[in-house]
């Protein structure tokens, strides 16, 4: 933070909130100044300067208090912003030294690079995470980034970490959002944001930035991870600050700043792809009454065009986590990649749903999760052998909350971490294998086995046995039905 300086004149403003350390230190310092400014932007105040938690309100008449040192420091920093210049001589919102930008190489993030330099006077380090989106999306990124004005591009292969530390815990927990969504994008954002925090430390950056819009869930997922892992980092979210409103504005800005506009054909859909899934939004999907076009799908074939013969697969599981496919032990990412191929060939894992976004609106999305759908079916089925009734019921109830936390970007929340410890403990005996039949879009369980199975054929059999005396059921039924019998007697007596 800047050094303290005397305050001569300023707006009649009450700074209510300023993010500090892991919590949010609240400032209730009021002060009176003769001149009143009409908007918080005249002070250079933006949400991202204060880690997304700044609130500015106009007031009327206040006096300085003896605790005003915090306000003086904030205003001194703002005063610096109004006297510093960016690369083109423009007035800066705030002076930053180096920003790590989540970079894809598309139009939006290509434009963000010069915008950051122009408005924050900083160096820009572009960061790209390989979470299984495909090699075609990683080609030529360094040239694009540097042509846009970045000083460096950092690419990290996060596929194994993504599957091992994020996907598999959700799989073990049985986390499904609103009955259908297997949380593909929700799980990817925290692993990317975590890597960005690491890169920021490596390159000495004092800020991070992303290209998420102000309407979506991803902005929350990125920023909550930043707050949890390094609350000292400033966060810049251009879509909540700039005047660019669409693709044409972005192209015009890119042309003005000599940024090469990506020449790839613009998809009519908004897509997000990683090793777990591929999501589709936008265009005709914005009307929930419209059926998706078949040519939209990229990971799976139309079930009617899938092979006419079913395929059987066997998934090996140890303590609630998949470890093998058809007897072959594989790393988490390799296992998922192979199942994506097999599942996609049979049209497995297509989901069409209307979901509730975290920010309050409903949205319609179509998801392809072939390998994930197979794995969820296998793990869930094995639990039917290894977990008792009460444990399954508690686990299923917690899985709903677990999914909500992940969807809302609260991966590093102590509650999710505590719930994950519970899930890990109760699935210690969920080991064994499950055989599944894949056929024209469906996944059917055909067999399951476990050394920890609670299933006893000698008890369950309809044949007579020494362990279970069927005559004992009469007494059980009388005791189990006692409340019902008592209620009926009261009703008959008119009580």
UniProtKB/TrEMBL annotation:
The keyword Transmembrane helix does not apply. Gene3D superfamilies: Argininosuccinate synthetase, chain A, domain 2 (3.90.1260.10), HUPs (3.40.50.620), Single helix bin (1.20.5.470). SUPFAM superfamilies: Adenine nucleotide alpha hydrolases-like, Argininosuccinate synthetase, C-terminal domain. The keyword Magnesium does not apply. Residues 269-485 form the Arginosuccinate synthase C-terminal domain. GO terms for molecular function: argininosuccinate synthase activity; ATP binding. One of its GO terms (cellular component) is cytoplasm. Its EC number is 6.3.4.5. One of its GO terms (biological process) is argininosuccinate metabolic process. InterPro entries: Arginosuc_syn_C, Arginosuc_syn_N, Arginosuc_synth, Arginosuc_synth_CS, Arginosuc_synth_type_1_subfam, AS_cat/multimer_dom_body, Rossmann-like_a/b/a_fold. It comes from the Eukaryota. Keywords: Amino-acid biosynthesis, Arginine biosynthesis, ATP-binding, Ligase, Nucleotide-binding. Residues 98-260 form the Arginosuccinate synthase-like N-terminal domain. Pathway: Amino-acid biosynthesis; L-arginine biosynthesis; L-arginine from L-ornithine and carbamoyl phosphate: step 2/3. NCBIfam families: argG (TIGR00032), PRK00509.1 (NF001770). Homotetramer. This is argininosuccinate synthase. It comes from Erythranthe guttata (Yellow monkey flower).
């Amino acid at each position: 933070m800047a050094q303290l300086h005397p305050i001569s004149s300023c707006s009649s403003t009450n700074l209510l909130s300023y993010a500090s350390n892991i919590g949010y230190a609240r400032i209730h310092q009021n002060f009176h100044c003769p001149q009143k400014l009409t908007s918080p932007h005249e002070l250079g105040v933006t949400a991202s300067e204060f880690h997304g938690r700044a609130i500015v309100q106009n007031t009327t008449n206040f006096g300085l208090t003896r605790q005003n040192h915090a306000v003086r420091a904030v205003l001194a920093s703002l005063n610096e912003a109004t006297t510093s210049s960016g690369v083109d001589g423009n007035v800066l919102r705030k002076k930053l030294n180096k920003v790590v930008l989540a970079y894809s190489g598309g139009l939006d993030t290509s434009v963000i690079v010069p915008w950051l330099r122009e408005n924050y006077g900083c160096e820009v380090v572009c960061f790209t995470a390989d979470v299984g989106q495909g090699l075609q999306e990683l080609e030529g990124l360094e040239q694009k980034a540097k042509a846009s004005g970045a000083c460096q591009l950092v690419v990290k292969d996060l596929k194994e970490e993504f599957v091992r530390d994020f996907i598999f815990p959700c799989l073990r927990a049985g986390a499904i959002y609103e009955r259908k969504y297997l949380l593909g994008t929700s799980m990817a954002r925290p692993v990317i944001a975590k890597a960005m925090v690491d890169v920021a430390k490596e390159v000495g950056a004092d800020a991070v930035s992303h290209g998420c819009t102000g309407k979506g869930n991803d902005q929350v997922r990125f920023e909550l991870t930043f707050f949890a892992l390094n609350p000292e980092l400033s966060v810049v979210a251009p879509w909540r600050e700039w005047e660019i409103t669409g693709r044409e504005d972005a192209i015009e800005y890119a042309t003005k700043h000599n940024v090469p506009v990506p020449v790839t054909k613009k998809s009519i859909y908004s897509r997000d792809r990683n090793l777990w899934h591929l999501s589709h939004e936008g265009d005709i999907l914005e009307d929930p009454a419209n059926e998706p076009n078949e040519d939209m799908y990229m990971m799976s074939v139309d079930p009617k065009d899938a092979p006419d013969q079913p395929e059987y697969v066997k998934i090996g599981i140890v303590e609630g986590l998949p470890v093998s496919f058809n007897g072959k032990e594989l790393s988490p990412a390799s296992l998922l990649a192979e199942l994506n191929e097999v599942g996609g060939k049979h049209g497995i894992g297509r989901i069409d749903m209307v979901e509730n976004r975290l920010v309050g609106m409903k949205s319609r999305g179509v998801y392809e999760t072939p390998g994930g759908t197979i794995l969820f079916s296998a793990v869930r089925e094995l639990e039917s052998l290894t977990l008792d009734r009460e444990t399954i019921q508690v686990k299923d109830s917690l899985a709903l909350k677990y999914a909500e936390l992940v969807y809302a970007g609260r991966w590093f929340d102590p509650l999710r971490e505590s719930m994950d410890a519970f899930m890990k403990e109760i699935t210690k005996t969920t080991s064994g294998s499950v055989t599944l039949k894949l056929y024209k879009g469906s996944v059917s369980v055909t067999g399951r086995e476990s050394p920890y199975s609670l299933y006893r054929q000698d008890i369950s059999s309809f044949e007579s046995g020494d362990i279970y005396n069927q005559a004992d059921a009469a007494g059980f039924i009388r005791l189990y039905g006692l409340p019902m019998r008592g209620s009926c007697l009261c009703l008959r007596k008119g009580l």
